[in-house]
Write a structure and sequence with these properties.
alpha+beta, seven-stranded antiparallel sheet, 14 strands, globular
């Protein structure tokens, strides 16, 4: 399967699990219109998807967020069929305080033993002592058609913003899926199971179902399956991926993966930020603040999660069609001022810089995108964009966005962001 970092619908990410949206502003190219929207759109996509880009490396995945009730998994699920045998495969990795590396071949054998009866081809893997992170993927056929299946393994800081977001369901404005449920297991692990599609615009009807699990200790397991033999450029081979939601959960929760994660060498230079910190320097709840600043005549049909660090959005309708409005708030952005604010920048009396962009959304076509980007003298950046559609990758629902440029400017300059 092709590398997830080059998937058409994902932005490229190189670093592993860096929490700050600030760095997103540094990574964009020098086209100012693109830079203006980087924090709001690409920053959000990095936040939502970087985990699997780093975890999977050579395999695709989606990592998204929540909290939730309890999911009872039937004890007779096929994912448990060879549980004891699979566990013994990796037992040396957990037998000492400094676990021995787990090879890619051992990960392949483990996945084959955890899956229901079937045939396996095109297996490949990266061991726990290989960079950037271990994963295993193969093509599985239970007699009803081939399916690509992958498992990625990594660590997250327990209680951190990344750990929380890894199992939170995304808003429909950014990820079009059939269903998404986040649940807490008996051992305290949180798992998100999403049934979605490889292409958000569904130009090809390849389905991708995934389970993202984070344990209380920060062990992160990402399982993905498709109804084709590859994530892309392969014909549909079955109507649905082979594993049910319960089976995906069972596979992700297998203790053998946790033992392999424990065998991943720890980076002595890893960040030591306290659990729960989002590292963005942004304390305001962006989605809820945005909602209070909207014109009163707008009806809100969808609101982003209030715990998303530095990012928020709403989908509004003034009676003329849905319109997506998104905001990114970033601290300490003065170092990229020259890239973000060039010709056409207005400087206010208090030193705040403002620039306006009108163009098309990331997906182009008929979707208009209006953006007001601001930078205060203390380095705080607030960038707001509005679209003439309820999502960037769906057709335009109206002629112009629901908010005027004047209204976007007023929201971006509001003291509420301070």
């Amino acid at each position: 399967m092709p590398d997830v970092q080059h998937s058409e619908h994902l932005d490229p990410f190189e670093e592993r699990l860096a929490a700050g949206l600030h760095e997103a502003g540094n990574a964009f190219d020098t086209d100012r219109a693109a830079l203006a929207t980087a924090g709001a759109l690409k920053g959000r996509r990095r936040l939502l998807r970087r985990r699997n880009a780093a975890v999977m490396g050579g395999a695709a995945g989606i990592a998204l967020v929540g909290v939730g009730g309890a999911l009872l998994v039937p004890s007779g699920d096929p994912a448990d069929r060879h549980g004891s045998a699979a566990t013994s495969t990796l037992s040396p990795a957990a037998s000492s305080s400094t676990p021995a590396p787990v090879s890619g071949d051992a990960l392949i054998r483990t996945l084959e033993r955890l899956l229901p009866e079937g045939t396996f081809t095109k297996a490949e893997a990266r061991g726990t002592d290989e960079e950037p992170s271990p994963y295993v993927q193969l093509v599985y056929d239970d007699g009803k058609g081939a399916s690509a299946i992958s498992v990625g393994l990594d660590r997250l800081r327990p209680g951190s913003d990344q750990a929380r977001q890894a199992t939170q369901c995304p808003g429909q404005a950014y990820a079009h899926y059939a269903s998404c449920v986040t649940s807490r297991l008996a051992d305290g692990s949180v798992v998100m199971v999403m049934r979605g599609y490889e292409y958000p615009d569904r130009r090809v009807d390849t389905k991708r179902w995934n389970a993202e699990l984070v344990t209380p200790q920060g062990q992160y397991v990402s399982v993905n399956e498709w109804n084709a033999a590859a994530e892309k450029d392969a014909p549909i081979s079955r109507s649905q991926p082979p594993l049910s939601s319960a089976q995906l959960t069972k596979l992700a929760a297998a203790t053998v993966w946790r033992k392999a994660i424990d065998a991943i060498p720890r980076d002595p230079n890893s960040r030591t930020t306290q659990p729960g910190s989002d590292d963005t320097g942004v304390s305001v709840s962006v989605s809820s603040t945005l909602r209070t600043l909207l014109p009163k005549d707008l009806k809100v049909s969808e609101t982003g999660a209030n715990d998303d660090a530095g990012f928020g959005y709403v989908v509004v309708d003034d009676g003329k069609g849905k319109s997506l409005v998104q905001v990114n708030v970033q601290a300490d952005m003065a170092d990229v001022e020259g890239d973000l604010f060039g010709s056409g920048t207005e400087v206010l009396s208090d030193g705040t810089k403002v620039v306006v962009h009108q163009g098309t959304g990331e997906k182009g076509g008929s979707v208009a995108m209006w953006t007001v980007d601001t930078l205060r003298t203390d380095g705080k950046r607030v960038v707001i964009s509005a679209f003439n559609s309820g999502a960037q990758d769906t057709p335009a629902t109206r002629t112009t966005p629901a908010l005027t440029l004047k209204q976007l400017r007023e929201i971006a300059l509001s003291p509420s962001w301070l």
